[in-house]
Amino acid sequence: MKNIIITFLLFSLFCCQQKKTTINIKKTAIKKDKTEKLNKIFIAVNDTINSFFTNLKLDEMQYMPEMLYLGKKEQRTSVTFPTENEIEIAGFDIINSFSYRIKFEKGDSIFINTKNIVINELKKVNFPIFKVPNSTKTWSEINLGYLIYKQNLKNKAIIINNGKTFRRNTFDFEKIYLNSNSVLDSLKANNSISDEFYLTNKINRKLEFATNRLREAKNQKKTLNIDSLNIKLNDNELLNNQTYVNFLKTLIRYKYFNKDKNVSHSVQFDFINKEKTFLNESAKQILLDSYLKSIYFTEKQKFEKYVTKFNTINKSQELKNKWLSFIAKQKTDRKKLNVSNRNIGVLTNLVNDNQLTFEEVLSTHKGKVVLVDFWASWCVPCRKEIPFLNKLKSKFSNSEFKIIEISIDIDYSSWVRASKLENISNEEDSYIIANWKKSNLYKNFKINSIPRYLLFGKDGKIIDENAPRPSEVKLIELIKANI
Fold this sequence. Notes:
By secondary structure, this protein is of the alpha+beta class. Helices cover 39% and strands 19% of the residues.
């Protein structure tokens, strides 16, 4: 069943080839003009949406996606955050078997609504619809997943059960593949997508279908004729295409590790490095680079050893520079989180890289009521409380009330990304703490779980070491009583 889910998530993002189907969609002119965009992205949901969750990928070396909650229930319907890169928005509904993955450029303003799709007589689903007025992409390009999902339901390529589980959902992967291709053909004939978008998606769906066939053959211990996949094995023009790289890595597992259920990325790295395979030198370099990235995420204790190996054998100066730059940044970040020349529990902020103890920070706000928020990028309840924290700031004067935010993240980059997304990266009293579990803060206040809030009085003494959450009215009353 796990393999079925993975397969669906791959193919619900659109496949390709053959049959032609008429899609009833408004003809959209292809935009060609492209102006310089600002280094930020704006995301908003329709104000009728109660709660909407999606995942964001903000940079290449991000292992876990950023969580974004918007809607009336979340006390936030929009967010603006700085970025110099493109971002990826991705989400899925496992019960109703749909997923989406869309890339947006810096400067885009993304407006999200939902469209109601009737699945059967007992079930409906709200599928997210994206509108980007300042994008060079057409509506159909941005919402291709929605169009294909509707076609898959219509043609019964996906059949959703009436219950609250995905286990009885059925998928006809050949139909899904053909439907995706048919939708692309129809949109192209209707001039609703550009030639580049059409060709790129045709190639990627073919690659995804081939990748899925390899996985199925490996899982079912079947022999598959590689030539039948009709994919060129050393296509230098596709080496910058991640979908093609994923196909090659899957082929490596099928051809050389067919009997092994689990093979670490470091083992595959060593095999490709030492053994003669079907890969030419260019493809080999790209795959080793991809394995190295996976080693960083899943075998971090081996990363330094393998990046040294890679830089020894790698012939691409561009790739070498990329990893040298990444390692230098990692060392700088680790140094900030492992301060050894000052008191344990040093706080660092993004505004000016000041390094202070908690006592030093607290003393600067003597005469004010101070709320201390302990949070982390991975903590869902913490992130959902931040909009309420921001509302608290507007309820009280800065001269009488202050909020200090302290992240306990162990990954500096994760904290930076989350801070930007939560619009607190420019706050002078937003910090990350070094040596967290060795700090006096951790020990003195027994902070074993987050979110956790400490409330201090004007004299700097603790009022409540387990204060109510910002979303609770009790906290407002407690602050008012002590101002």
